[in-house]
Each structure stands twice: as C-alpha cells, then as structure tokens.
Amino acid sequence: MKKNGIINSQIAAVVADMGHMDWLAVGDAGTPVPKTVKKIDLSVVLGKPEFIDVLDAVLSELAVQKIYLAEEIKLENAAMLEKIYERFSQDVEIDFISHAQLKQQLKESKAFVRTGEATPFANIILESGVVF
C-alpha cells in the first residue's frame, strides 16, 4: 500500500504520466465531461468531496506552470477563486477564459477529476510544468 500522497490509483497514474504542458482538469459535479476524456469520478453526494480538497491532493504531486479558470468565477464564486489564488505562487500564470471555452478545452485534458462540489464555476485546468 502506498504510504503517502494520492492513494486513488487512477489519479496517481494520470499524475505520474503527465509531461510538460499536459493538461489535467478538476471540477464540480455538474461539469459535462467530453466522451473522449478519461473521467475519474470521485463524487459521492453533492458537496463531497469538495473541489478544493481534491485540488490540494493533486497539487501535492503535480508541478503546475499555468491554470485556466472560467471568467465567470470572478462574479459567481469569488470565495472559491480566493481559495484557488491562495494555492498558486506568482510564477503560475492564470488564464481566464469563458466557461463555454473552458468546457471546450476539456477535450485536450488527459483526464477530468469529478468532485462532488456543488458551487458554480469550480473548475480548473492545470497545465503541468517541470521540476527542473
């Protein structure tokens, strides 16, 4: 048994397989996931697990150089946006795009991790960086 880090085998495998500039998405329970994208469904009930807890687990193992967020989060879920800001240093680029565009760009992700989050626009695309 793995001693620490991500113990979900599907998420651990995707993170281990990430290369520079690959995308991994994490989002709320209502996000439509393209059929061509691997969906790792962690949702149990509405609200569980929370988006931010899953994001923290992924960030504990994944080097991130850029993130994509829906522009709408600024007005519709400012509290979540603040939590997201707290997790990224100034060297991580943040690109705000429309929610419709974010949903389209999910097609480019290696996987989508579906949480039980039930707040609007709690979705993120993480672009992997390098550790050297």
TrEMBL record:
Keywords: Carbohydrate metabolism, Cytoplasm, Isomerase
Subcellular location: Cytoplasm
Catalyzed reactions per annotation: beta-D-ribopyranose = beta-D-ribofuranose
One cellular-component annotation, GO: cytosol
Self-association state and partner proteins as the record states: Homodecamer.
Protein name per Swiss-Prot or TrEMBL: D-ribose pyranase
Binding, substrate: D28, H99, F121, A122, N123
InterPro entries linked: D-ribose_pyranase, RbsD-like_sf, RbsD_FucU
Gene transcribed to yield this protein: rbsD
Pathway(s) annotated for this protein in UniProt: Carbohydrate metabolism; D-ribose degradation; D-ribose 5-phosphate from beta-D-ribopyranose: step 1/2
UniProt superkingdom: Bacteria
Entry keyword annotation includes Isomerase: yes
Coarse class of the protein's main subcellular location: cytoplasm
EC numbers on record: 5.4.99.62
Function statement: Catalyzes the interconversion of beta-pyran and beta-furan forms of D-ribose.
One Gene Ontology term from the biological process aspect of the record: D-ribose catabolic process
Coiled coil: none
